[in-house]
Amino acid sequence: MLRLRIILGVFGFVACTSLALAQASGHHLTAEMIDITLEPAGPCDHVSAVSVVMNKDESTSFRAVQDKSDPCHWTATRPTFYVESMIFSLRLGSARTQCKVAQGSAATRVAKLTFRCCRTGARQVDLETTPEMSVKYIRSVPADLDVEEGSVPCEEEYRYSGQPVIIQSVWFPREAFDSKLERAQEVSSLRPVETVRIRLGYPDSPSLILNHASFMRRIDPKTNTLSAAQILLAHQEQRSKGISSMPEGFSVAADDAEWKELIKTLRLKSVKVLVK
Asked: Above 50 in pLDDT, residue 20?
């Protein structure tokens, strides 16, 4: 039986605390517009599109509209929502932001967000499986107050809606694409922006880190695919590094058996990965 992993932690703590305080006081700040400012002015001039992830649900992301008079100012309208209960992040093409809670105004019904622009190095990733199956991904983003004042940890999810699965603005460490750096055990100069895990077939299936050298190194450059055997090897390497999804107390033999059962049940042959 595939295990059901329940991920506990502090993700969304700030937003939940703010909502609890609002509920306790009986006051709720609602909004219908999201007002976004990118700082500083120089780098944000090059941003040509902004996608907004709201409520940690990447499968319902939406586009913001650029202010014609100010390239660093973007807006979007949504059905009425409680400002205190929402966590936001942005996809900026070659970058992504941390996660933040907006500042609301009872007078204007506008949720205001300011993000620093831009931590570069993000890439679009397209995934396809053979045979086609459900694919879910989870983006775990730590808070980084040195980079983004007011940032909060969050865990954003995407629910399957067809293939190819397009993951926007994925951050990769330098060593994910450079075997020399990996062999030298060098690490990125920037702290990790996010960890992207994929789940194949079932919402509760074991996960595999996508934006890691153990996964990227095994992609066949001619076909852009990983075979089922390579998927298993990537997981085993992640397990050896202590970053896999194997629960505490689970034996290596049991973990391998679970992955082999998953691959067999799904009849998984390969995963195609295009990094753009």
From this structure: no
Which of 22-26, 83-87, 202-206 is predicted least confidently? 22-26
Instruction: Say if residues 54 and 88 touch (Cβ distance below 8 Å).
Output: yes
Hey, where are the domains in the chain?
13-116, 122-275
Q: What is the mean pLDDT of residues 12-26?
A: 44
Per-residue H/E/C for the chain: CCCCCCCCCCCCHHHHHHHHHHHHHCCCCEEEEEEEEEECHHHHCCCCCCEEEECCEEEEEEECEEECCEEEEEEEEEEEEEHHHCEEEEECCCEECCEEECEECCCCCEEEEEEECCCECEEEEEEEEECCCCEEEEEEECCCCCCCCCEECEEEEECCCCCCEEEEEEECCHHHCCHHHHHCCCCCCCCCCCEEEEEECCCCCCEEECCCHHHHCCCECCCCEEEHHHHHHHHHHHHHCCCCCCCCCCCHHHHHHHHHHHHHHHCCCEEEEEEC
pLDDT (mean) for 184-207: 78
Give the C-alpha separation, 110 to 112, whole Å.
Answer: 6
Q: What is the CATH number of domain 13-116?
A: 2.60.40
Residue range 228-250, pLDDT digits in tens: 999 999 999 999 999 998 888 88
Average predicted confidence (pLDDT) for the chain:
87
pLDDT of residue 191: 66
